[in-house]
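[audit] Reproducing an earlier prediction to check determinism. Same input, same settings, fresh worker. If the tokens differ from the archived copy the diff job will pick it up downstream; this log only records the rerun itself.
[audit] input (313 residues):
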Amino acid sequence: MSVTNHEPLQTHGLSKSFPRPGSSSIKALTELSLTVSRGQVIGLLRRLGSGKSTALELITGQIEPTEGSVVLAGHDVATDREQALSHVAAYPYDGPDLDPSLPLIEHLNANESQEIAPAMRALDLWQKRKEILADQPLEIQRRVALVHTLFSERRILLFDEPMAGLDPAASVTVYARLQRLAETRARAVLVATKQPATVSTVCGRVAVLHQGEKLLDARVKELGQVLEGAYYRIVLGSRLDVRRSAWFDDLVLTEKHGRTILSGLIADQAALQGLLARIRDLGLSLISVNQVEPGPEEVLEHFMTAQFKVGLR
């Protein structure tokens, strides 16, 4: 079935449950409705076990939904699977579709040759471009699949943890390509990841999944508006050991120059004073306490902490 006046990628009430012997089924995804339009790069941010991989498997037709539907370029995956998936390139799911008997360069889009060469160099593929794919280690095959998807002519591009295993230089190349796709190629791009930095760098919008449910769907630039409370950055004079770190599970902990920085949302002044009292009771040296305007990555880090359901407007 084809749908007119369609967006490139739409899910409607998408749910998936898996049977569990001797008990009720496990809900991996619950009523996910999501739209990705042309020229958009959307982030699907998740914690471990929150349904991100299940969502991508449903979108690419690898598993069937318990409820709901997936429509790709106007075609319902359930009733018109071949036509629907003909518009999609997905990393790493397209890897098995690559012909292992061909050289690396044969899997890439010749129409993009001027842009592909720098990308292949950044991902350490250029010197191997004439070698047979089947003869390469798994990491090289994954990188070929990543470049294959980045330069695909298809309308819908899906990525599952595209930065995994990449060094900083290679990550910059992938970031730049994703941004260019949105700006000049009018693709619909969905990037699933557990890395807030990836979302804040390349995505215009983000959906946050928690325990299989969509907790948040917002423009990245407007993330600060969804928080209720004040965002603080507290600097301690030393590093925290594991035992003391457990007292600050609701905050993001980073270390810099031998100091610990606690960042996160604090509901009110009473909560702030309680936190400062805890720091004193633990005998920690307090350097500074500042209320700050969080950037997109800091807001997303907040949503990735243990108590991130707290603080939504």
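[audit] rerun output stored. Observation attached for the diff report: The two ends are 39 Å apart (CA to CA).
[audit] end
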